[in-house]
Amino acid sequence: VQVVESGGGLVQAGGSLRLSCAASGFAFSTVAVSWYRQIAGKDREFVAIIQRTDDSTNYATAVKGRFTISRDNAKNTVYLQMNNLRVEDTAMYYCTAFHGLQWVWGQGTQVTVSS
């Protein structure tokens, strides 16, 4: 049971990236999936969530209107489309889901936004 994030990189402010989170060992369609981010030396913070039941979404205020979370159940993958990136979006991004009575976290993917 694991999740693996990918898609991070270096981008200029105003640019876009799409992060992917692929699950193995369980089906993303059965759980809510969240994205979090962490800046070195700071606490991990919530970014976005997509619900299991109706695919409704919720976002942190800082990213609302710029980021979009979505899922592709056929690929067992959740995405985070990030547009109009800002320098302050620079962080390690993680996806997570609650499965088997535990939170499953990936290793993260680094996003760096330059000015």
How would you describe this structure to a colleague?
This protein is mainly β and 115 residues long. The chain is 0% helix and 55% strand. The protein has no helices and eleven strands. It has strands spanning 2-6, 9-12, 17-24, 33-38, 45-50, 57-59, 67-72, 77-82, 91-99, 102-105, 109-114. Strands 2, 4, 5, 6, 9, 10 and 11 form a seven-stranded mixed β-sheet that branches. Strands 1-3-8-7 form a four-stranded antiparallel β-sheet, with no helix packed on it. The protein is globular, with a radius of gyration of 13 Å.
Please give a quick description of this structure.
By secondary structure, this protein is mostly beta strands.
Q: What structural class do helix, strand and pairing data support? A: mainly beta
Mean pLDDT: 96
Q: Note the total helix count.
A: 0
Taking all Cα atoms into account, the compactness measure Rg is: 13 Å
Topology as H/E string? EEEEEEEEEEE
Global shape: globular
What is the end-to-end distance?
38 Å
Could you give the topology of this structure?
Layout: E1 2-6, E2 9-12, E3 17-24, E4 33-38, E5 45-50, E6 57-59, E7 67-72, E8 77-82, E9 91-99, E10 102-105, E11 109-114
Parallel strand pairs: 2-11
Antiparallel strand pairs: 1-3, 3-8, 4-5, 4-9, 5-6, 7-8, 9-10, 9-11
